[in-house]
Backbone:
């Protein structure tokens, strides 16, 4: 299976490539007043407003660096009760893909209720990578405002 | 910016600073022991990591605005311009054949006529030491041009076409070049075009300067094979 590699801080994480519709460079984002800091705002994707989550702001509490290697991953996801739709994820160092088997992942042995999206880990020459479970990431209670946003849209 | 040391490993940072490919790699003295495994620096992980690290730059001015515009536009369709033809002229007619059937296009050269051969077979032409049968497309399509009048090649170009396992040469007056287009741009051939030309024309492609008849290569090849059979019959 193909995975997309990105970084949160200095650690590497993976996301399933088949859930990613497109990777686009940083664009101008229309901010949403009074939104939580991780909800970066909306952007115009092919004529359609798409909400953007800043993964660094969500996981690390600081916004993603603004450089060429920081990109927006457009993923197919389901938020709340709404149907599947596109969500943008701002990810740092989203420059590589990695091909590996599901069997190569090892249970991390740690679970964290605050971050239920952290999945099993994978070893490679440079250390450990952790898989992000997209469905659990998008179904977090903290993302509830995004569901309300969609219902209104 | 707080990028840098935190982002890449020491080895890569050192390689970027030291540009190892210029010192011990293919652009240097070639003494790097990884070369045995990778053959060329471009296959090496250090090189690709160094290239990826170039993306750790700040956004250049205008980058955000430009990409905002690109991403907001409709996605360019992948099927666009998927057909490719070579456009050429015989007499006053602009015609096209799929690029895939072309072996090469060569300049004018002497034509050796074959006695007692009429019709579309004009003779044989020496192309890179091989004698190829020269067929008149103008004769087949009923286009009056110099090529059809007599056994004389026009001062244009010779199309060398791969027709099944044979190669044939067709003289034309002018070659416009390769044109790529979306298959949905093709239009039905108008009924007003001359009868034999219409039979071999699959569709019409409208270009700004003129309309081009796209020939049906399968029908053409059937005709070529019949002509070749008659040309080589003893």
Residues:
């Amino acid at each position: 299976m193909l995975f997309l590699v990105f970084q949160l801080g200095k650690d590497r994480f993976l996301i399933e490539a088949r859930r990613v519709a497109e990777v686009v460079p940083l664009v101008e984002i229309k901010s949403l007043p009074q939104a939580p800091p991780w909800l970066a705002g909306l952007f115009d994707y092919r004529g359609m407003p798409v909400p953007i989550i800043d993964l660094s702001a969500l996981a690390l509490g600081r916004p993603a660096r603004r450089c060429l290697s920081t990109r927006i991953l457009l993923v197919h996801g389901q938020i709340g009760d709404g149907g599947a739709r596109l969500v943008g994820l701002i990810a740092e160092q989203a420059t590589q893909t990695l091909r590996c088997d599901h069997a190569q992942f090892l249970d991390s042995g740690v679970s964290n209720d605050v971050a239920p999206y952290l999945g099993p880990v994978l070893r490679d020459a440079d250390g450990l990578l952790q898989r992000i479970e997209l469905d659990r990431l998008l179904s977090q209670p903290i993302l509830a405002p995004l569901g309300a946003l969609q219902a209104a849209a | 910016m707080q990028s840098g040391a935190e982002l890449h490993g020491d080895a890569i940072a050192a390689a970027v600073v030291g540009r190892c490919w210029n010192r011990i790699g293919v652009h240097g003295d070639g003494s790097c022991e990884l070369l045995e495994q990778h053959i060329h620096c471009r296959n090496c992980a250090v090189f690709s990591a160094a290239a990826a690290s170039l993306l750790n730059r700040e956004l250049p001015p205008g980058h955000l605005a430009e990409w905002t515009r690109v991403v907001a536009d409709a996605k360019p369709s992948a099927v666009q311009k998927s057909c490719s033809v070579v456009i050429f002229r015989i007499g006053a007619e602009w015609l096209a054949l799929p690029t895939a059937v072309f072996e090469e296009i060569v300049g004018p050269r002497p034509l050796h006529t074959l006695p007692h051969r009429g019709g579309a077979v004009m003779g044989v032409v020496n192309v890179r030491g091989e004698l190829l049968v020269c067929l008149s497309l103008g004769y087949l399509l009923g286009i009056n041009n110099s090529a059809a009048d007599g056994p004389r090649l026009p001062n244009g170009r010779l199309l060398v076409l791969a027709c099944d396992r044979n190669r044939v040469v067709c003289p034309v007056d002018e070659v416009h070049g390769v044109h790529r287009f979306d298959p949905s741009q093709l239009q039905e051939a108008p009924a007003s075009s001359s009868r034999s030309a219409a039979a071999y024309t699959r569709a019409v492609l409208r270009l700004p300067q003129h309309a081009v008849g796209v020939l049906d290569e399968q029908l053409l090849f059937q005709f070529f094979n019949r002509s070749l059979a008659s040309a080589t019959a003893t």
